[in-house]
Amino acid sequence: MPLALLALAIGAFGIGTTEFVIMGLLPEVASDFGVSIPTAGLLVTGYALGVVIGAPIMTVLGTKVPRKRMLMLLMGLFVVGNLLSAVAPVFSVMLLGRVIASLAHGAFFGIGSVVAAELVAPDKKAGAIAMMFTGLTVANVVGVPLGTLIGQSVGWRVTFGIVAALGVIGLAGIAKLVPELPRPQGVRLRHELAAFKNAQVLLAMAMTVLGFGGVFAAITYIAPMMTHIAGFSDGSVTWLLVLFGLGMVGGNLVGGKFADRALMPMLYVSLGALAVVLALFTLTAHNKIAAAVTIALIGGLGFATVPPLQKRVLDQAHGAPTLASAVNIGAFNLGNALSAWLGGVVIAAGFGYTSPNWVGAALAAAALLLAFLSAALERRDGGTHGSVVASGTPAEQRTAVHH
Prior knowledge:
The structure is a single chain. The protein is mainly α. Helices cover 82% and strands 0% of the residues.
């Protein structure tokens, strides 16, 4: 794997840290600004919505910019957003900082996925994408717990200052290590938009929303579930989230490895197993050891779907992958927001703290059904990539790789 992937992974580590660390620092931030916890929660919601909206906008703005330079600009935006959060005098300014930082998120992972795939041989593409996403998963094991500890000990502003410094390191790494890749010839915005006429691209994105949404239906409510049902102390929740992060790291690497060998079978196994484990979590949540094991499995199976889903979008949008890749990153966050809301609905309806697990299982099962549908349509169409391939240049059409 090229050293340039390390620079992308560092950027991903910073982004992953800033996305999730706020969840552990909400009480401190709320107290500092004199707002309620639900109001402080807008820092989570605002970030997620910023990713969904920012991914296509920033990618479209970057269609005329070489990919390396665009990645550097995105990391610069990320640094500015986190610095603004660190020095924010009032809550509204911090929320603005969070949104600015989030605008870099989707486009960075979307463009970064394309760049990572271009740096390696065709049979290593999913592994390269997984290597970049390792930064995001490791952030949940190291960055988020450490950031939370620092924020609780010496102040949350220090945490966001450190995250901004990570962004500077990532920017420098990209500048030094990522090669100047030639811009694809003949690919214009209308070609990028044409990807969304391809049913396979839309199916892959729907699988992303539902599959990863299944994970967050359960994990969003992990604190009340583990303290009220399993009997863990409040302080134990951080370590349970570390277990979740370790599962994510393992699942991401396994998903990347096997997606290069058999992409769709990897999706069948990971989504099917995820649906089963989420359903079982309603039972295992009542036992501390079983709950801890289940949380790690949810992290592993959930993130085992990420490299194959991202590669599926790249494959099906061949010849115009950049916008589709970035929008698919937004789809992960849309799934997070949707499932968190649905989980809250069933809890508010009186079904108990374990009820979001059933929501997650249903979402993962729905994603599995879409995977079977996608494969059936591909067999019917003879494995073609649809209209997007036809809209690319002749050279892109000749080099299209069918999966």
